[in-house]
Design goal:
The protein is α/β, with parallel strands linked by helices. It has one domain (11-308): Rossmann fold (3-Layer(aba) Sandwich). Helices cover 39% and strands 14% of the residues. The protein has an 8-stranded mixed β-sheet with strand order 3-2-1-4-5-6-7-8, with helices on both faces. Helix 6 (126-142) runs parallel beside helix 7 (179-201). The radius of gyration is 18 Å and the shape is globular. The two termini are 31 Å apart.
Length: 315
């Protein structure tokens, strides 16, 4: 797969010359940071973007620039979605299915990071419940709307290297809670969910991939304390090269509408390329083998269905 894109590529670089007129793409987390930039870049190339956000008033204010940038028939529609509430997730998904308008891509961008121990409205540990289970139900319920050739992109993170999923104690009921262990579990779950989706849907010409946007300074880091920052950046923030928000969103749009579907399907992507598998604890790039394990993906799928009380089959 030929590509001249890399860590410093932006959304505008990746989408240069791309015409998305008539494409309909859903982006969760469209009220801040990467979600806004992803929506802007897509709408500016003609895509009709459905932006999902928990706080619609905030999203309306934050996305004024998206509407201003829309061109070639592109535009933005906002829908209310609280991923920490399965009632909200199902209400939003059911309304979209009832409307019957198909999608060319879903970019599951929303999430929380390294927050204090807490629970969603359904009693799930906050990060696993929001980052994984909320999207698990939402995306699966929208599969009937996906066109042949569609893609599902789940935002994961290099933070998946902090921990594999724990299917015996997903809610930290018997395990000591640590913000980054929890975050790592949820980000590994995002990758495994992509693996599971891709295996179930590729016969219908629908592919799924997970992406790492890179280190970006956005609202996602609101819970980071000096102690947590020291854990992930032992040499201090000055030693770490942050991406800009347009650089951080580039891999999402590259995976969703630019890269060959056969290349990214079932994979984990970073810096606008498919990442290599590495279990080297010193490596700051690549994907851990446990995150791409098909058997692990099936086990997570079964556990997730059990936790949310709903089964999803795409026969």
């Amino acid at each position: 797969m030929a590509s001249n894109f890399g860590a410093e590529s932006t959304t505008d670089d990746v989408l240069d010359g791309v015409n998305l007129k008539g494409k309909r793409i859903l982006v969760t987390g469209a009220s801040a940071g990467l979600g806004i930039e992803t929506a802007r870049a897509l709408a500016a190339r003609g895509a009709l973007v459905v932006g999902a956000a928990r706080d619609l008033d905030k999203a309306k204010r934050a996305t004024e620039g998206v509407r201003a940038a829309a061109a070639n028939g592109g535009g933005l529609e906002l829908v209310q979605l609280d991923l920490a509430s399965l009632a909200s997730v199902r209400k939003c998904a059911d309304a979209l299915v009832a409307a019957g308008k198909p999608f060319d891509a879903i970019i599951a961008n929303a999430g929380v990071m390294a927050c204090p121990k807490g629970k969603t409205s359904d009693g799930f540990e906050t990060q696993f419940g929001t980052n994984h289970l909320g999207h698990f139900v939402f995306v699966n319920k929208l599969v009937p709307l996906l066109k042949p050739g569609a893609r599902i992109i789940n935002l994961s993170s290099a933070g998946h290297r902090f921990a594999d999923v724990d299917l015996d104690d997903p809610n930290f009921e018997r395990t000591e809670y640590h913000p980054f262990v929890s975050y790592g579990r949820s980000k590994t779950a995002n990758i495994l969910f992509s693996v599971g989706l891709d295996r179930r849907l590729k016969s219908r010409d629908i592919r799924s991939a997970a992406v790492h946007p890179g280190g970006i300074q956005t609202e996602l880091g609101r819970h980071l304390t000096p102690e947590l920052i020291a854990m992930i950046m032992p040499a201090g923030p000055a030693s770490f090269k942050f991406k800009t928000i347009p650089q951080g969103s580039a891999t999402s749009v590259w995976s969703a509408v630019v890269a060959p579907a056969s290349a990214v399907g079932g994979q984990y992507c970073e810096d606008c390329h498919v990442a290599e598998i590495t279990n080297d604890p010193a490596s700051r790039q690549g994907v851990r083998s446990y995150a791409l394990d098909p058997a692990r993906a099936d086990a997570l799928w079964a556990k997730s269905e059990q936790m949310v009380g709903e089964r999803f089959s795409f026969g």
